[in-house]
């Protein structure tokens, strides 16, 4: 029962609710008949009178990219030809050309607004776990103390308007009882938020859980998952994302924001016929929406476009590049107007330091890259093993209990340590921060210089010896690192919205900050060593620990996701430091090489394979020397291929064949004896056309001939009228010969986005290769279970 029942049930509801796809039902067919004003006597040829539902797809099917692109070209050609005839048609042509840009504007505005709302709500609810503002419960801690005149510089976080739960319940802020009250309230709020999140996901939108990026990659490759980008998913994901982030779980909101932006794009596509009726055009918009998601998550429009191009998109023409850039720009501008953090920045952990780095520091940067690669590879293996256990054992049947247990453990361990208690974004902000003279943070607990001449120049403090405060902070950070590494493995993949960017960056930033402080102390006490001589004199600011944190964050995120170019650009846009591009590039490339040595898959590809989605990875090489005849069906010993003949089968025979098989399409041949190929017809189109003809065309019975040719064969006078279906047949299906090498066939499938390909020998049909056959064959070569590809 469990989870599968919920997702199946919701699947069926979403299928109806999602709209934009004409469902195959008797109702729609007869309604269309009424609208077209065609009575039951007219002979119908689908070529002249397209039926509703013909050319659409079933759930969990792959779209035919070639057919969708040619459909769009025909539509465009028709509009262009008509535009020369009248002014109205010309205006229609202009509006059609402009509709893509208008859609991008709307997607940017909607996604930017939602992201701003999510940021503000998550910030407020995170602070709600620790206390409440008396002048207005809707103020978070920082906003509450902004207007106060009673804050001191040393204790800038405490003001009389903000009360912790201990002050409200026990009347005191100090002592063991107050600590216990705050501890228990923290756990209570964390459990409440996570319980609400998992219950809402489970009850209303099972598709709102997880990061969403693996499924979006699959959808962009041409797969259809109805309801995944529907309105319910959008509403529930937006609400539960705030709850999940606020509960203190080790997850981020960056991945889910990509899903939210894609939901916005899919819903807005229904306003424009061009995108509503064409699956390939819709995927161009979704590619741009993925860029918008990263743009609002990190305040990095260019990084977002590159992320979409490098990481999620399957088909990314130049036109989509420009539109993605425009949409990302609009979204970033919208978020900037909302100003969720009140500091004119788009993210919480924006930093601005311009301290120079030395060439010798590349060695520790590369060390961080190695750490990031090792952590990425180990994380992927551990997380996939845990998720597989969740799928195959009873654990998967109790998602609510699992979420509550993980939240309870997280809250129990996180509260005593101030670095795990704060949200992931605040932690990264703290670690990226460079210490100034007036910093009250524990990470800046250095011993103060005796005379002021040692304070360096340009407000950059000279390297100083570590004090007791810094040693305490380093211990806490080391414990936080171990905790984050272990808890993130279990958290990612639970039934709440969960991103991976922030936890990965937090792990890397902690490791980087620890190494940075270590390097700083090494240079302070040993500036006469050969490696420091010449560039690190006493009283100079040689090492910036915040920079190491930044490089470590990039390295760990690169190790987990295998992003390269887009990651460097995102980090550069985050920090505004052009001079740090080389350290970031060195660490990112090292982490990718090290992680690739353990396995070529990033976390998203690994989750795609775990879920069995039919996704042909463009980055993966096909190195086997098999031929098309080895992969095609039917194999030796299998029953013959199910085919239709062009003019010798009756409707009854066709229906019997369709009902006795579960294939999504059938090759059409000249005759059963010759097996010469004519074309290919889709099961869905065939059923809709036959069903429609029975209702709208007189004399169509089971004995009527089904004709796929232009001219009907001669029939006896008493025979019932034939059913002409030339309009639904694809007369130019992709074919390869039986001796085509499989690496070429796989390339054809990837580059053209094919669903199936027919195999011929001297023009005679031998068999068929589908996308699933290729994936099964690749799984067999890699010694994996080939039946894991059957997602539906």
UniProtKB/TrEMBL annotation:
Pfam families xrefs: CBS, Voltage_CLC
Alphabetical list of InterPro entries matching this protein: CBS_dom (IPR000644), CBS_dom_sf (IPR046342), Cl-channel_core (IPR014743), ClC (IPR001807)
PROSITE patterns linked to this entry: CBS (PS51371)
Domain CBS: 632-696, 728-786
Keyword tags: CBS domain, Chloride, Endosome, Ion transport, Membrane, Transmembrane, Transmembrane helix, Transport
UniProt-listed SUPFAM superfamilies: CBS-domain pair, Clc chloride channel
Membrane-crossing residue ranges in chain numbering: 101-122, 186-208, 229-251, 257-273, 285-309, 359-380, 400-419, 473-494, 500-519
Subcellular localization, as worded in the UniProt entry: Endosome membrane; Membrane
Main location (coarse class): membrane
A cellular component term, taken from the record's GO annotations: synaptic vesicle
Single GO MF annotation: voltage-gated chloride channel activity
Protein's recorded name: Chloride channel protein
